[in-house]
Amino acid sequence: xxxxxxxxxxxxxxxxxxxxxxxxxxxxxxxxxxxxxxxxxxxxxxxxxxxxxxxxxxxxxxxxxxxxxxxxxxxxxxxxxxxxxxxxxxxxxxxxxx
Length: 98
Hints:
Blueprint: H1 6-18, E1 22-25, E2 30-33, H2 40-47, H3 51-58, H4 62-69, H5 77-88, H6 92-97
């Protein structure tokens, strides 16, 4: 089933452009391994943002970010893609706040 959410599609395209994939070679095929992202709190610390700033960049409430950090809930697929982009380019968060 194809996802038609424009934000998801945009972030997916950005992810393909920005992220470097590590290539794992085995004898029969070449596979792309997605870049792992740190926990939300660690990523927020890496980017140097407060909870409220991180929430604005992510397009969610501060309570959602607190819930992610407490591991009560998990970020959506779209939020995880944006987190991968932030991890690949930590200054992107500050640029998005401008």
